[in-house]
Amino acid sequence: MAMPRWRALRSTLIRDYPQLRPEHPTYRWLVLSGVMIATFMAVLDATIVNVALSKLMSSFGVSVDQVEWVLTAYLLIFGVMLPTSGWLADHLGYKLIFTLGLLLFTVSSFLCSLAWDFNALIFFRVLQGAGSGILMPVGMAIITREFPPEKRGIALAFWSMAASASVSLGPAIGGYLIDHYSWHTIFDVNVPVGILGMAAAVIVLREHKAADSRSFDLIGFLSLSAFLTSLLLALSSGNSAWNTGGWTSNYILTCFAISAVSLVIFLTTEFSVIHPLIELNLFKNFNFAVCNVVLFLFGLGMFGSTFLLPIYLQNSLDYTPLQAGLVFLPVGIMQGSVAPLAGWYGDRFSPKLPSILGVILMAFTFYQFSTLSLFTESHDITFPLLLRGIAMGVLFAPLMAMAISDIPHQKMAQASGLLNVIRQIGGSFGVAMFGTILTRRTIYHTAMYGEQVNAYSDTFKQTVMKLQSWAVQASGSTTGAAATKAKAQIGMFVANQAFIQAIDDVFLLAGGIIIIGVIPLFLIRTHKTGARRRPAQKPVQAQAE
């Protein structure tokens, strides 16, 4: 049977370009470049969507607690697919699954741009999350397999640079596209990048399969999916307008019950089957378990609250999408600049110190954002974001290196997938939880500010008279209509101030959650590798001639 055309093309390229041969020193860096393209695309989509949330709210007529499902649905299926991707890669081949993940992500991105209503958009975002859930862990496993342990930290640092570039360019590109075209184009931009990534994967990557294929844990997959879905539905719907019963409604209690039963089934299955979906025995590795705790707390605080900042900038400070996107430009630049240095330091000395510094800096930026107001200056927003870029740069590469330092190669795909599972599950819980907290705190602050607005006070009457006079002069309204507009303006101000105060509360809580991650980091056991100590040489004894 004739060899497929792409295999013939790759054979020709390998013959003409020896750098594509696995034994060549340049090969592993070409692999890293190809994986970075896919990582750039996956992270780019998430950052672009953050900037587009305000536009999606107005286009589809949905509120914050509804539009958050654009993120939650993506993160949810992402977390479910991460452990599944390890089995797929081991069973069918890393190159094939990585390429298929790219294809699914690219096609679903195009479908998102064609979404005709909000439900269709959520469905296509689920497909996107499935593609991204394949790309991230398989890509990381490919990198850790190709690079030796002494160079793994710097390789992961460069891999994280692709994510940092997306963090910088994604919001700016998304803001420009939304300002000049429409929100649909933020998904179309993934298509050419996806095609480029697939071409690089087909040409550069060599195929690799696990020596022993294992059966698929279907019960574990279904129970994990039911656990995450029902729990997130409960967390995100507790204060929804349609849920009149609140947290004690039959719907919420049923979701919690399904979640609890599913969790019991999942844990029972994982400890009893021969080939579990998630090897919980990996948590017996102390460093791996501790790093997962840190990543969960990071995902809960970081991903769970960051989506609120673009909404605040656009809805409260009247930033355009492009202006809001440019605010995030320094984050990725700082992360990309610092990450290689952190990886080098972690490889040469100890990765614990940069990880602790990253968590502290990250928590401090959320404390700074807890003081936002209607009159916040641009530098008060930019400076914390600069620190955030540094924090992410010094945190991820050393933390990942510590997590997988003692993991055997045959379990690397499971380990890398589980690391991303925990972080994305934390992000999913954070988005659902903080969305609910935001709703409750907005109601609380609206009531508190409303009590302070005394319609019979002299201050209120004078304010209404001034706004009424301005409305008459500006729009030529009658006195009665101008008075109504003046009171409505005060009501809008109170509502906006209550929303901002609620966002401040969420940021303060997120910072508190993240800083807790410092505690387990002190417990991590690191091997002293200062200057990559050479093995001791045996003394040379003089020999008599």
Written account of the structure:
By secondary structure, the chain is an all-alpha fold. Helices cover 76% and strands 0% of the residues. It is globular, with a radius of gyration of 26 Å. 48% of the residues are buried.
In short:
The chain is mainly α. It is 76% helix and 0% strand.
Provide the low-confidence segments as ranges: 529-545
Please outline the major beta sheet.
Answer: none
Q: Roughly what is the average pLDDT, rounded to an integer?
A: 76
The N- to C-terminal Cα distance equals 69 Å
Rounded Rg: 26 Å
Strand content: under 5%
The string of secondary-structure elements, in order, is: HHHHHHHHHHHHHHHHHHHHH
Number of helices: 21
The oligomeric state of the chains shown is single chain
Identify the overall geometry: globular
